Amino acid sequence: MAEVRRVSGAGRLARAGFADSARAGRMLDELDALDALSAPGEYGPMASDQLIASLSESADPDLALTGLLGMAESLHANDFDLAAFARTLDMDADFRRRLTYVLGASEAFGRHLSVHPRHWYDLADPALAAARPTPDDVAACLATAVDAENPVDALRIEYRRLLLRLAARDLAEGLLVDETAAVLADLAGGALETALRIARNDFFAAHPKAADCRLAIVAMGKCGGRELNYVSDVDVLFVAEPLEGEPEAPALKTATSLASATMRICSAHTAEGTLWPVDAALRPEGKAGPLVRTLDSHLAYYQRWAKTWEFQALLKARAVAGDAELGQEYADKTRELVWSAADREGFVGDVQAMRRRVVDHIPAADADRQLKLGPGGLRDVEFAVQLLQLVHGRSDESVRSGTTLIALEQLTGSGYVGRTDGAVLADAYRFLRSMEHRIQLYRLRRTHQVPDDDDDLRRLGRSLGFTKNPIDDLTAAWKKHGLEVRRLHEKLFYRPLLAAVARIPGEEVRLTPEAAKQRLTALGYADPASALRHIEALSEGVSRRSSIQRALLPAMLGWFAESPDADAGLLAFRTISDSLGSTPWYLRQLRDEGASAERLAHLLASGRYAVDLLQRAPEATAMLADERELAPRPLESLLSEMSAAGRRQDDPVAAVAAIRGARRRELFRIAASDLSELLEVEAVGEALTTVSVATLTTALEVARRTVAKGEPEPTRMSIVAMGRFGGHELSYGSDADVMFVHDPVPGASEKAATDFATQVATELRRLLALPGADPAVAIDADLRPEGRQGPLVRTLASYASYYARWSAVWEAQALLRADPLCGDADLCASFRELIDPLRYPEGGISDRDVMEIRRIKARVDAERLPRGADPATHTKLGRGGLADIEWTVQLLQMRYAHRIADLRTTRTLGTLRAAVDVGLVEPPDADILSRAWEMATRIRNAIMLVRARPSDSLPRDPRDLAAVAQICGYNPGKTSQFSDDYRRRTRQARNVVDRLFWGD
Question: What is the pTM of this model?
Answer without folding.
Answer: 0.72
